[in-house]
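Before a colleague's protein record goes any further, I have to sign it off. Would you go through it and say whether the fold makes sense for this chain? Take the sequence as given and treat only the tokens as open to question. The record follows directly below this note.
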Amino acid sequence: MKAKVFSIQGEEVKNIELSDTVFNREVSEAAIYYAVNNELANRRVGTAAVKTRGKVNYTGAKPWRQKGTGNARAGDRKSPLWVGGGTIFGPQKRDYSYQLPKKVKRLALMSLLSQKVKEERLRIVEDFTVESGKTKDLAALLKNLVGDERTVVVLKDDDELIRRAGRNIPWLRMLSFNRLSAKELQYGKNILVMESAAGNLNDFYGKS
């Protein structure tokens, strides 16, 4: 498929060829769902935990004798029915992460790129960087292209200067072409793909 390439001023400069396998395929909503859920699950920190009656540091002595006091029977003060006792069915530490099949992950990412193309939310832009590494310079540059909407920039490599300039912009995410995030692509209002990164995506995903 043909795609327009824009300058950093937002003007059309030329056309390039993109792989139909990557940018113009049938969208698999199921794969997208599984990939986004997998990323969210892998980010969860399963450290919430409470003490059950077996973990409460309390005496195990019977508070009073079984019969004759008029009180209800009680085994120990660690019972969940008592103040200071354990908690019934409370959360315990656990690992929420799991592995998604590689083919499903790849299908999800290609589906997301194709979906954004169909929605006209993906643009190919000429390669650029921020020589100063300053946030204000990158924000001024992006203003011509996307304003201040939630944006994902797909880089051709790990450009340290542009990453440093973009880390203080709350609505901006930087992704390398070979380390895309299904969650960021799904919720990004605009996807800016550098021209070299588009070629890399053709090679990286187009072979599958």
The mean pLDDT is 91.
